[in-house]
Design brief:
This protein has 19 helices and 5 strands. The protein is mainly alpha-helical. It has 3 domains: 122 residues, HUPs (Rossmann fold, 3-Layer(aba) Sandwich); 118 residues, Serine Threonine Protein Phosphatase 5, Tetratricopeptide repeat (Alpha Horseshoe); 166 residues, Orthogonal Bundle (DNA Cyclobutane Dipyrimidine Photolyase, subunit A, domain 3), CATH 1.10.579. It has a 5-stranded parallel sheet with strand order 3-2-1-4-5, with helices on both faces. Strand 1, helix 1 and strand 2 form a beta-alpha-beta unit.
Length: 470
């Protein structure tokens, strides 16, 4: 019997994998393949990908299969496998980056007359081409998108691993996971991400099983970096080790009859994730160009010194430095702190948002191009939603509000750990006679920097700044 190909992409799981389920239902032997993608280039995310592929390989091996590892253009790799095996079909999950969509078009052009191609929208609650305004144009504001998306209804229920799968016994050339160099950059940087994370489908499912207490408190604690009140599911979702449908079903399953504030807040985050991919689908230049075209003329700074100090967590603002150091140590940063550090870079320092987005992509284990790009544009004020362009986070107030006793800062900025309580957020006010710590001076005075940013925004034609938030 001729085999079929399952091309694994960002769906590195066996449970609720639409492409794998469809391939198994044919009854034909399966050839599982992963093609190394140039888009998976971040240092931290490549480390995670290595571990995730090892996990998937182990799971397939236990079922009698082998994960084929190849490098090259997907259309050429799949053509080679077709030529060697006489496969009849290829199954895969769609992605929404411009390069990914081009890969899919190339596969259709190269193989569409020789292979049956089956593509699945398997990464989001709802495919991005199914939600639009009454005039047929894409939404640019989250809340109307969210209302339209929720009106579509719930996503399908997750499906289990196929009960019966057979795998091709043909011997095909493959690379080992260790030989493709996914760990090299992380090792060179001294990352020790294994101290924080355990990638793979099994670990993602374990974290999903622990979601109930997080859901109950999510609306109360999700903005507190000093507390462990977030799901930590984002990297597992990013690599498709668990499906978004599984998360949705789990949250609803806890509170089906009466959705709590915590559950509603967490589900809204899933829709923001959908919205980010939706924006990237409709605006492919989202990672490089502002959605608001007037920002093409914005007077950004090109100070490499300022950018480097921000990257190292040496800005002199404790909550900012804590976040940046957490990122370097763990490949992750609390979401509230991501907004604070992004606002500081783009508004206090006037460094282009693209530079911050690139740093996040290289250092985050959940480095989702769509979510990263949309979120940076939101904070910089050049993307979706109108309000953030004049919202300039005060890093002192943010620290006092969301890390009230300074425990988060104390964890990641150890030179300040002896400062009592709230003093840790304003170490420059500590008396020189009692100061016994070495900590960088503030790069800028926030009040001065805020006014400079507002002046820069006002200089852009058409910018509305009649309502200015502190």
């Amino acid at each position: 019997m001729n085999p079929v190909i399952i091309w694994f992409r960002r769906n590195l799981r066996l449970i609720d994998n639409a492409a794998l389920i469809a391939a198994a239902e044919t009854g034909q032997p399966i050839i599982p393949v992963y093609i190394v993608d140039a888009q998976d280039c971040g240092t931290a995310s490549r480390w995670w990908l290595h571990q995730s592929l090892c996990s998937l390989q182990k799971s397939l091996s236990e079922l009698g299969g082998e994960l084929l590892i190849r490098e090259g253009r997907p259309d050429e790799v799949l053509a080679d496998i077709f030529a060697a095996t006489d496969a009849t079909d290829v199954y895969y999950s769609r992605r929404y980056e411009a390069l990914s969509r081009q890969q899919e078009s190339d596969i259709e052009a190269a193989l569409g007359e020789r292979l049956q191609i089956h593509a699945f929208d398997d990464d989001l609650l709802h495919p991005p081409n199914t939600i639009h305004t009454q005039t047929g144009t894409p939404y640019k504001i989250f809340t109307p998108f969210w209302r339209a998306a929720t009106a579509v209804g719930e996503p399908p229920s997750p499906r289990p691993t196929p009960e019966a799968m057979s795998f091709s016994s043909q011997s095909l050339a493959t690379r080992t996971i260790s030989s493709i160099g996914l760990l090299t950059a992380a090792a060179d940087r001294g990352f020790e991400l294994e101290k924080t994370w355990s990638p793979g489908e099994a670990s993602g499912l374990d974290r999903l099983d622990e979601l109930a207490p997080v859901v109950r408190r999510y609306h109360l604690g999700r903005d507190r970096p000093d507390l462990d009140e977030t799901s930590r599911l984002s990297p597992h979702l990013h690599f498709g080790e668990i499906s978004v449908r599984q998360v949705f079903a789990a949250v609803y399953g806890f509170e089906r009859e009466s959705l709590s504030d915590g559950a509603a807040a967490l589900l809204r985050q899933l829709y923001w994730r959908d919205f980010s991919s939706y924006l990237l689908f409709h605006f492919p230049d989202l990672p490089t160009k502002p959605l608001r075209p007037e920002f093409e003329r914005f007077a950004w700074s090109d100070s490499e010194t300022d950018l480097l100090a921000w990257q190292r967590g040496e800005t002199g603002y404790p909550i900012v430095d804590a976040g940046m150091r957490q990122l370097l140590a763990t490949g992750w940063m609390h979401n509230r702190v991501r907004m604070i550090v992004a606002s500081f870079l783009t508004k206090d320092l006037l460094i282009p948002w693209q530079a911050g987005a690139a740093w996040f992509l290289d250092n985050l284990v959940d480095a989702e191009l769509a979510n990263n790009s949309a979120s940076w544009q939101w904070v910089a004020g050049c993307g979706t939603d109108a309000a953030p362009f004049f919202r300039i986070f005060n890093p002192i107030r943010q620290g006092l509000k969301f890390d009230p006793q300074g425990d988060y800062v104390r964890q990641w900025v150890p030179e300040l750990q002896d400062l009592p309580g709230k003093d840790i957020h304003e170490p420059w006010n500590v008396s020189p006679a009692t100061a016994k710590f070495q900590y960088p001076a503030r790069m800028v005075d926030h009040g001065v920097a805020r006014q400079r940013a507002l002046d820069a925004y006002r200089s852009v034609k058409g910018m509305r700044t009649s309502k200015l938030a502190p």
